Fold these 3 entries.
Entry 1:
Amino acid sequence: MKGIMDKRVSSIIKEGVNLLEEAGVVNARSEATLLLRFIKKWQMHHLMMNMQETISQEDTEEFINLIKLRKNGYPLQYITGTQEFMGLAFEVNPNVLIPRYDTEVLVEAILSRDLPPKTRVVDVGTGSGAIAISLAKLKPEWEICAIDISEKALEVADKNSRKHNVRITFFQGDLLESIKKTNIRPDLIVSNPPYIPALEIDSLMKEVQFEPYLALQGGEDGLAVYRRLIPQAFSLLGRQGCLALEIGYNQGEAVSDLCKSEGFQQIEVIKDYQSHDRVVIGVK
Ligand SMILES: C[S@@+](CC[C@H](N)C(=O)[O-])C[C@H]1O[C@@H](n2cnc3c(N)ncnc32)[C@H](O)[C@@H]1O
């Protein structure tokens, strides 16, 4: 028997949309729809066919609780536990940065280069494993290692590597320190390191405040990690070895200069789809 408080799907979605719009959420309708589908485990066509059905009080309460989390800026991806990157679904939780479309520019830049057939890659600061796993999927013959200082991030990356059935060797440690202790000599070092100046983090979108500080904060001017990583990468790479870095929209010149002064050559700055500097690549 249906409870007296049961509501129709259409009216509960409307309620969710109104609450999200009040909080200024841009895609209120699609987010409310997605959250209800998430609770009901419905595909889109199930939702469309069930608009006049009733929803139990329990599901309604769960839905409103999730809508309230979103109103407070809690990222949708941490609620649903997933984010797409390079066409693959990555599991995410608050221990990892939510992979960004901007980072696809870094992966595409690597794929467009003429690299050895069995390229040995090290991904520094792997987070959810987005970069390392997409490279492993697209270039199955490459040998890929991935590092993070955060054990909890590595748990997520490992889970994602198993989900996508790729073999990656994971290391926990500070930048390239753990690799230096092995006999691995990479042809390519890739990294999307934390690069936001510490004092700017508070002024970013509410959603970003829920992401790991360790994944965001790049010291006073945002360049602290590059200053340590670039010399370490230079000494570990062999001749013709390549370093590919994601950068902040206004860091093209500063990061290129750091690479140049270390000895990297053929330095290129690549722009993202908004025409902002996004990637710096250098060759040893
Ligand atoms: C901006 S996130 C990038 C995550 C992922 N590669 C991506 O592109 O979505 C930076 C990552 O670097 C890791 N990290 C921060 N400092 C580090 C360090 N000193 N050594 C290794 N990893 C570090 C963080 O834990 C975080 O996972």
Entry 2:
Amino acid sequence: MAPIDNQCAICSKPGKLCASCENVHYCDSVCQKTDWKVHKLLCHTFEDSREPPGPNMMRVIVFPFNTTKLEFRWLPIKPGKTQCPDFGSFFGVGSMLGANKPALVDFRSFVQDPKTGVRLHHRITVMFRDGYKNDGSITSIAVHNLTGGPCISKLARPVLAYGNIDSLENEDVKCTNLDTSDLNVIKDWFAQGFYKCKNEQLYADRLNANDNFLDATAMFEMSQDVERELLTRGLTMPTNLQNLGLKERLQAVDAFKKVWDAKIKARASKKQQSFSASMDADELAWRKEMQTSGRITSQSSDYTDHLKRQTRLPEEYRPREK
Ligand SMILES: [Zn+2]
Ligand SMILES: [Zn+2]
């Protein structure tokens, strides 16, 4: 969201615009310095991403897996009751369905500041490769760098974040363009992990709120998405779910997911082995090195060479020629 007033991003006192991006306010150089560690990741790229390159596009934040540099990107808006970016081949291929199948994508969304619990101006949704827990995906270096340490969620491969404006019931849920001011809450959310800020809980909260609730259709679609995910793994929801009300339905899906997570955990080592067999040797070696040394850097030229061989990645995720 573009700045509505001139509030300092750190302390909320009146402030002046950041001279390079003109997208965020600071009251003084102390607050600016405090925020720079996070703000610098997006400040300079905002300049190129100020205006959409065409109609019907939304600005999202991209967290590449192979570099610490974040970027804004304009993606086409996928029309529908709840607008979202048309991510196309963004997440690449290769998943539990097979090496050449499109990656399954999962998402979590939040409307509250993970630290303070204060409601945000808009909902933020984070999309990521669904199989990150057990498909051997490489940890996202951008996310790791942003949080400054191992991320509880261990998001892997490219990750993207987009925004939606909450609507009254039966209204379409519109998208909104993210900007540099969104990064701090996204960082806090990454650092806390899924299990303290689950979307099921937030949706349930919203369901119970008397005012300002999200479109019920969107929640219903979310529960259907979860069901579809489960189905792709040969797991069928109990048939009586079809007759449940929305709230009970969300609770049932959540409970079923927990059972499923426990099963997956038990089978994880076996699955990892079979997936690893189909991964290319270079990726395996790189991943092993990351795990054993705890060193996460994208600077080594070996790693650049390695990425050039990453034919499974979409073109834009291969390293750029300088
Ligand atoms: Zn300040
Ligand atoms: Zn700036």
Entry 3:
Amino acid sequence: MKSMIVTGAGSGLGKELSLLLAKKNFHLILTGRKNSKLMAVKKEIEALGGNADILELDVSNEDDATRNINTLCKQFDVYGLINNAGVGHFGPIVELNSMEIKEMIETNVLGTIYLTRALLPHLNKGHIINIISTAGLRGKINESVYAASKFAVRGFTESLQKEYQGSGIKFTAVYMGGMDTPFWENTDHIKDPSRLRPAGEIAETIVNKMDEDSIIIESKKP
Ligand SMILES: NC(=O)c1ccc[n+]([C@@H]2O[C@H](COP(=O)([O-])OP(=O)(O)OC[C@H]3O[C@@H](n4cnc5c(N)ncnc54)[C@H](OP(=O)(O)O)[C@@H]3O)[C@@H](O)[C@H]2O)c1
């Protein structure tokens, strides 16, 4: 059974993608920082008749990320990776503190780079899907550093698509607008997240279009 590693699999889009991929007969390796959330997703997958393992992993920790990818590749037939873990801090640039800036760059950019670099030497054939955002397509007011982090992942993905052209390894960049997930819990940047698309709907589009180089899912007009 082929395995897919999903980062940030304990909630939101990562959870919904994991549930759908389990139904497509992938073994899921659910990763994130909080064991209890991963455990709950594993149980949901198993209740559907699927297969999953969990691994506590902070993607911003380079040594941890590299060591864990190496161990997982010895243990499982790893086919792919979904770099989904991400954080956002929003507001005027002069009001963002250093910790918020660092967290976005270390999680969204470096996390994606560390895991991808660690996995690639193990793959002959495979698929790496990078969850970006429409903030990786155009800048937005009060999203400067978040957009910078997502533009970085876009550049990373587009470059690897060229570097690995003709190999058995595929890269997909996913750009979506707002989703109703826990992502918005500690911010008032979005006034009413319940008006955003459910993560399950976005996950379904991604899984259906997984063979494409890039997937763009714009927000619904309010
Ligand atoms: N929600 C939106 O409107 C929206 C729109 C466009 C793009 N996105 C992107 O979609 C992706 C998923 O977000 P979501 O909306 O599903 O939000 P979410 O429910 O908050 O999911 C993000 C996940 O990332 C994990 N995470 C955060 N920092 C981590 C770290 N250092 N190491 C490992 N895991 C970490 C969190 O789990 P733990 O805290 O347990 O580790 C969480 O489960 C993100 O990349 C986000 O930027 C979201």
